[in-house]
Amino acid sequence: MLAELEALVSLAEGGSMERAAKEVHLTPSAFTRRIQRLESELGVALLDRHFKPPRLTPAGLEVLERSRGILASLSELKAAVAGKAPPTGPFRVGLSHALSLPEVAEAIIELGSEFPLLRPNVGSDISARLLARLRQGELDGALVVLPVTSPFPTELEGVTLAEEPMLVIEARVPRSPARSARRPLDLRRCSWVLNPPGCLVRAELERRAERLGGSVTVAAELHSSDLQLALVAGKVGLGLVRASVLRAHPLRRELRVIDHAAFALSIQISFVRGSHLGSREPVALAFQRMLQRRFARIGEPARRRRAPAAIHGLQGRGGNS
User: Fold this and answer.
1) Quick one: fold of 2-81?
2) Model confidence, pTM
3) Which of 85, 105, 205, 259 has the greatest number of beta carbons closer than 10 A?
4) pLDDT in tens, 17-47
5) β-pair partners for 56
């Protein structure tokens, strides 16, 4: 029926059967049959043939308006699929709780400037749920935190923006003979201040404690790194913090790093793109480049990664904050 709709629009714009037929490369008789097929399909007279040239009936005018809308939508669809249409509407970004960084805010603001018809839609969650939402098409991109031992998730692409160690910390106390003579700290029997359940780094910490024959006793679980460090400095328990966060934190002089080979963890900060983004694919790639530039300034240079294997059972295990 699209050809018939195009014929009606050509007739309205051309003003006569002859000009409209020429516009769509048909003979006048073939063009007339096309209009008649449309009238038969819709069950209504579109032309008042008492006039020369024929005029559109009230029904014809309504069909004409709707035909233009249908053809315009089809044209937009073709352009979007071909990647030629300027991206519009929402661009849905998910952030791990741990990545509420000024550099990320800068990249989001820059994205809005580069694509003025776009509307960034940003929310935070744990990394596993962000990856699940990417797979389900509910997000266009996500910034996630994963242990370095976790490969990229299947069927998704992206880049590793930075890698850094996670440090085990405790409250700093004044040196004393009794302290210096004390036996090494037994991490298996200490209380911890950690992210809530669902954090992949916490899960890895718990697995390592189990391998040592112990378990992790949690004194506090919350997403705020500021509150976590304050509680650790107040001797509520041991903590686990990214090295870059500790370096810049006001409480860093009140905390001490504990070196323990069994708990030497590192994480990767990654931007992962959704699949089948259509006209939003250039937006996702532009945002990825913006993030790479900023993370290169604050950490190790980014390196490209492509999904080689699955994170087994990821959705059931939860993600990092």
Assistant:
1) Arc Repressor Mutant, subunit A (1.10.10)
2) 0.61
3) 205
4) 888 888 888 888 888 888 888 888 889 898 8
5) 47
